[in-house]
Amino acid sequence: MRPSDAQCQTDVFHQLHTRSEPLVLVNAWDAVSARVVERAGATAIGTTSAGMAWSLGYADGERMPASELLAACARICRASAVPVSVDIESGFGESTQAVVDVAGALIDMGVAGINIEDGTRPGTRELAPADVLCERIAAIRELDARFFINARTDAYFVPWDDPAARFEEAKRRARLCEAAGASGIFVPGMAGLDEIAGLASAVRLPVNVYAGYAGAPPAGDLARAGARRISLGCGPLQSALGLVQRIATEAFAQGRFAAMGEGMLSVGEINGLFPAAR
C-alpha cells in the first residue's frame, strides 16, 4: 500500500468515530472472515487477538509469535479495501522498543490503528502498572501522529470488592492514556449503561465498548450512553466454532448434515470475495 493510501485509510478510520452512529466492528481473524464481514457492510475491520491466536493453533494471551501475528495481518490488509485495526494485546514485546517495532511493522503494511492494553502482571490477576501502557502509547505516537491508538484497560477483568473503585480506576487509567497520546479508550467488561455514560463524559476520546456476548445491549442503547465504537471481539468466531461443533456432532452422532446446509455460502460466492484485481 502506498503511503498516501495508508494515510487516507487512517483518516477515514478516525472519521468513522465521529459519525452520528457508532462504529460497529464485527472482528475478523483471517483474510476470508475479513472479506465476509466487509461484504456484509463493514466500514472497517478490527481483528480479534484471541481469534487470530486460535486460528493459528495457539491459546490467547500473546502466545503466538509476533511474526505470525504480522503475517496474518498482512493477509488481512491485502484482502481488505476498508481500514484495518489490529489488536496487539499488550504489544507482543517485553520492552517498549519491541512493541514499537511491532507497531511500526503494522504501520508500514498500511494498518490504520491498533488496540493496546495494560493487561495483568504475569501469573497474577492484578492489573499491570498504568505507566507501562502509557510509555508504550507515547512511543508509538512518535512513529505516526495520526495512527489510531485505542487504549484498553482490563480494570473490569480483575477482582474488585468495590464496584465504584473499579470504575474510578478505569476512568483514571483512561485519562492517563489520553494524556499519553491515545486516540480512543476501550474498557471491555464495562457493560452498565450508566457507567459507560460516566466514562464517556469523563474523557474527550471516543469510548469503545465490548458487545461480543449473549445479551449485550443493542447498538442504539450503547450509542445513547456515549459509546462511539462497539466491538464484537472473539464473539463471532466463538459462534462460528459452535456451529462447526454442531455440524460435526450431527454428522458423527446422527449421520445427518442438515446443520451444514443452513445459510452456507456457495463456492462461487467465496471465490468472488477475492477478485484477481484485488
Notable characteristics:
single chain, 278 residues, alpha/beta, TIM Barrel, eight-stranded parallel beta sheet, 12 helices, 8 strands
Order of helices and strands: HEHEHHEHEHEHEHEHEHHH
Radius of gyration of CA atoms, rounded to a whole number: 19 Å
| Average residue-wise pLDDT | 96
Helix content: 40-55%
Would you state the CATH class?
Alpha Beta
Per DSSP E runs of 2 or more residues, the count of β-strands stands at 8
Assign the structural class, choosing from mainly alpha, mainly beta, alpha/beta, alpha+beta, or little secondary structure. alpha/beta
**Helix run count:** 12
**Can you summarize the main beta sheet?**
8 strands, parallel
